[in-house]
Design brief:
Layout lengths: L1 H26 L2 E2 L1 H6 L6 E5 L6 H4 L6 E2 L2 H4 L1 E2 L4 E2 L2 H10 L7 E5 L5 H12 L5 E4 L2 H7 L29 H10 L3 E4 L3 H5 L22 E2 L15 H10 L8 E4 L4 H13 L4 E3 L3 H5 L19
Parallel strand pairs: 1-7, 2-3, 2-6, 6-7, 8-9, 8-10, 10-11
Antiparallel strand pairs: 4-5
């Protein structure tokens, strides 16, 4: 009898533990590979890949994942803008997203473009959107399954909201914040980009005629927020990291990078993990560094030579 009771209790405690893990995943802005692999067949879960390398999805993706191309599906291809409300709603319905769907985004390149996707989803008020912590890098490193078949899903019925402008900064917003100091501006690029030593990372096509950073911007490179395997550091570690740089959430925050994708990664952790009030300046340095009549800080003194 004691053995039966002990077994029953063990099973019960095990179920509670699993339920706790499940609850923790459901309330977190992140999911891990173990949770996602167990929930791939859940009809209430939609997995979406947002990568930048051409053909990477076709060579193998998380089973059931659907492909979203960030530079066509998530942006206006004529204006430099995010996808319109109508275009984005069409996309979410094509992906099979309903009001009660959990959307899990992941991608290559450190989840930068998946984070951009999470930001656009949030701008349009889509709830329960999460990032796969570590993205493709960790999923593949853990030798989890990949598939080459295209997923087939029933169209969704989600109706998206008008864009939430509180999540997006424009050039005028960052100029006002720089002058008034009423918001903390965070440049998440590398130290060499911030100082003006280089205009952009090697091989980048989106360039500017000036190097440097926005006056008053603090520099916390995005890579300091992640571990070696690409997963985010713990919330406590992140809070200490940003507090040491003078960022504690006491003032609104504006983040920027070069074209808005790396800053989306930092926007995600500051807003979703730490709960701070954050806007993403998606125009970023390719807008600011090419704008006429705005000041820059260029410690390195690098001057554009036209080449």
């Amino acid at each position: 009898m004691k053995s039966i009771i002990a077994t029953t209790l063990a099973v019960g405690f095990g179920a509670v533990a699993l339920a706790t893990v499940s609850l923790a995943q459901s309330s977190s802005p992140l999911v891990n590979g173990e949770w996602l692999e167990k929930n791939l067949n859940d009809p209430k879960v939609r997995v979406v890949e947002v990568s930048v390398e051409p053909g990477i999805y076709e060579r193998g993706h998380i089973p059931g994942a659907q492909n979203v191309v960030w530079h066509t599906d998530l942006v206006d291809t004529v204006k430099r803008d995010i996808a319109s409300k109508e275009k984005f709603q069409e996309l979410t319905r094509k992906l099979g997203v309903d009001q009660d769907t959990t959307v899990v985004l992941y991608g290559d390149n450190n989840n930068w473009f998946a984070a951009w996707g999470a930001w656009v989803f949030d701008v349009y008020g889509v709830k329960n959107v999460k990032l796969l912590d570590g993205g493709r890098k960790k999923w593949e490193a853990d030798k989890r399954p990949l598939d080459t078949r295209n997923a087939s899903v029933q169209p969704g019925k989600l109706t998206v909201f008008e864009p939430n402008q509180k999540l997006r900064a424009r050039l005028a917003d960052i100029r006002a914040a720089s002058d008034s100091k009423n918001a903390t501006i965070v440049d998440i690029r590398s130290a060499d980009e911030y100082s003006g030593k280089i205009f952009a990372p090697p091989g980048s096509q989106e360039l500017t005629v000036r190097a440097g950073h926005v006056p008053g911007a603090l520099n916390v490179p995005w890579g300091r927020a992640v571990s070696e395997d690409g997963t985010f550091k713990s919330a406590d570690e992140l809070k200490k990291l940003y507090a040491a740089a003078g960022i504690d959430g006491s003032k609104p925050i504006i983040v920027y990078c070069r074209i808005g994708e790396r800053s989306s990664h930092t926007w995600f952790l500051l807003s979703k993990i730490l709960g701070y009030d954050v806007k993403n300046y998606d125009g970023s340095w390719t807008e600011y560094g090419n704008a006429v009549g705005v000041p820059v800080v260029n410690v390195a003194g690098t001057v554009w030579s036209g080449k």
